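User: Second chain of the day. Same drill as before.
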Amino acid sequence: MSKQTPIPREKVDSIIFRSGIDDVGRARIRELNKLVNDIQDASGVKFIRMEMGVPGLEPVSVAVEAEINALKRGVASKYADIEGIPELKKEISRFCKLFLDIDVSPKSCLATVGSMQGSMAAFMVANRNDRAKEGTLFIDPGFPVHKQQCKVLGHDFRSFDVYNWRGKKLKEKIESYLQTGKVSSILYSNPNNPSWICFTEEELEIIGELATKYDATVIEDLAYVGMDFRKNISVPGKPPFQPTVARYTKNYIILISCSKTFSYAGQRIAMMVISDDLFNRKYPDLLRYYASDMFGYAMIFGAIYCLSAGAGHSAQFGIAAILGAANDGKFNIQDEVREYGERAKIMKQLFTKYGFYIVYDRDIDVPIADGFYFTIGYPGFTGPELIKELLYYGIGAISLDVTGSERKDGLRACVSQVSRDQFPVLEDRLKLFREHHQ
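Assistant: Same format as last time:
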């Protein structure tokens, strides 16, 4: 007799079959999200939703008010400048100085339609500035859609799981790829999605120095800027600052999402920061695709213009207001999102209480921080097997398989959509899962 699960197995299996997904354990994030929606709707059982990295907090009010006021002024009828409105560009530049401790002019600070557009545009220019090079080195695990973007563009890419190459060992590993002469860009996220490891200054210095030595462009994804809660970076102009490779090389593009730290995901707005040196640098090979060989010009009037002709007008006023308040010390960028770290701490305790383990459990020589994501495994299961099994218990997550991880036993769990009032339900389901799998 089969053990009774919160959602009957036959119902889940039937919905999986109708979805057309060949291997649910290796489904992409949006595919899994739709599958969970379908199972939840058909069963009436509310899921513990950990599969998508979307905000779980209200948007910052200062941004909402500024955007409403901009709409009332009639900006919806006007195109914004392709590179971003002057007010936003000025505040991005100030933010970089006050929170990252780097100097970059407003000219080199751009608005994008989310960081997804930012990375697409970055690939379109950084991977086309030297005809002898082929594409991107991904320091994994990472956000799987970045590789999909490279595939869509026809770019080659290489990747490795960084977990066993931390500290000084990182130099040897990265250099082994750069020595081929085929790598045009290097991409990573910091804090890391999905493992939540955070690069040290030593590691960022290694990446920066190698990028300079081999003339590669670093694309630094700061989607979770300020969300390593072990450090208080919230005081403008005072250390500690957000760690960044920009202090160690001039070959950088920084992508700063507004979705997580500012809970502004729905407006699809983000920031791209290019070093002034890179912005003004000329690459003759860019003329194969763009009207100018200047990197920054090609980025704005080649890539971003083609993709969207700029970002939403009113949303830019919202983000300019947030940054302005943070830069002036009137808004603490860490206070509201600190809730994610507190949820992660509780949820990790619940999972480990009932037999699960943390897959990426160390940040070199210290325990992994509590933040937006954590990773879990269960003895006897591969990641894809565990994904499917948890669906019967009303729990959604994604497999580390799709992130470039070498760990085949784990899942990524996002805390943002799990409210505190769901913790008792989560505990009940984890307890039942252990009873069924001892």
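Residues 338-353 form the longest helix (16 residues).

User: Great, on to the next one.
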